[in-house]
Amino acid sequence: MILTGSFHASRMDSSTKELKTAQSKQPYVESDDPKDCGFEDRHVHFGPAGTAFWEEPPSDASLPEIVSHPHQQTIHPGMVDPHSFSRFHCPCQSTQCQISYPDYLLESQSTQYHPLTGAMSVPSDNSHPSTVLTPWFSNEPILCSIIGGDLHTPVAGISAPQLIEQVQVQEELTEVTSHTSQPVVCNVSGGGHVLVVNPCEPGPVFFTLESAPAQTDDGLTKGKDVNVLGIPTQAACVLYESGDQITSMYPNASSGRGAGMMCESKSRKPCHCTRSLCLKLYCECFANGVMCSNCDCSNCHNNAEHEVKRHKAIKSCLGRNPDAFRPKIAGRKSGEVKGWHNKGCNCKRSGCLKNYCECYEANIMCTSSCKCVGCRNYDDSSEMGFRGRTDKDTLSVSVITPAVLEAVYGCLLAQAEQAEREAQSPAQAEQMVLHEFGHCLTQIVKAMFKHNT
DNA sequence: GAGTTTGAAACT
DNA sequence: CAGTTTCAAACTC
């Protein structure tokens, strides 16, 4: 299914009416405050090539919503990678708006959720119809389809539009998405609809598409032509193809630990676990969401033969820490050395200049999120004579990250563009940009102050 | 390759 | 939540 033209986004409420875009606000934005991203009033449009863009820029770009959201943020397939995916959902670079989505075992007790094309861990005999496994480590929205004919629920056998009106389905979807902070994109068989279940929202968002998905004789919805959110399904299917040997679906995906490892190739390093059964986060394979393959581990349980234990281990990890499988490095764009550690390191003796340090290992600088002692992992060029300062002072400097600078640039550019649209005089345009710059600086100073207190 | 160091994860 | 233990990777010799 190629998305052409625009489509309407609507919430799946009892009325099933098309909702205005205000109700489809930031469908994937993970943020405590939905206002963080300023996307409340955006219309989402998909272009001819499966591209999408946000319409109507926010009137006010500010920090720490530090990034303005240049209007018509165009999303193309290349942007939707493990690192830039957040840009699609929210161009905001603010740490408050940084988005990464820990995956979770997609599972339902009563409804089948199928990866669109994948066969990962799905028994061929469908002996466990209630449990379909998908990688829990993905940054991507979970792609699944709801096959009406196979539903073992009271809603089986009804058309897709009717189906989605069923509260039960909504509850099931809500149940599914309650375990994940990432979007679940559900292809509703036969209806030409796609449910986009936003974990931030109480119910799924219902996108009405112009073309229906291809459907096979057995009722399975094929996504061979589906291009959802700019992700060609042919590529997306790779994501679900295998749990242990996931081929990169994005050429530029880096191989840093945590971030984007779901895209790693077969060249990933083998683990050497001996005591953890490869079912704890000590195991890098497990932590990265892949089954062990060609590893040097002993008594490995991180494989298909121990699926039940593996399943329990995943749940256990997520129970301890819902973000356990969340990429550790956020804000990283593919092919670029930038980003920040979500949690920050705690190094004490390495000076954060050895690979013991997760920040250093990921080739990123330490930030104020880190609790490291004697950190030397910061940009000398940005020290500007700060040598001799305390670590805490260095942390202040680290507030101004490349991402923040890029965000400021975005704000200023947005203002300039707005001035141009409004046919403002050069002087007025300059004033608008300067005013925005001042606003950005204020927010940066506030952020520094916050980090130092 | 064996032993040591290191810091994240897990545990108490 | 802080302190301790466990663990596996990084590092050194």
Automatic annotation (TrEMBL):
One of its GO terms (biological process) is regulation of DNA-templated transcription. Belongs to the lin-54 family. It comes from Anabas testudineus (Climbing perch). Keywords: Nucleus. The gene is TESMIN. This is CRC domain-containing protein. Residues 10-20 have a biased composition (Basic and acidic residues). It is found in: Nucleus. Residues 267-380 form the CRC domain. Residues 1-34 are annotated as: Disordered.
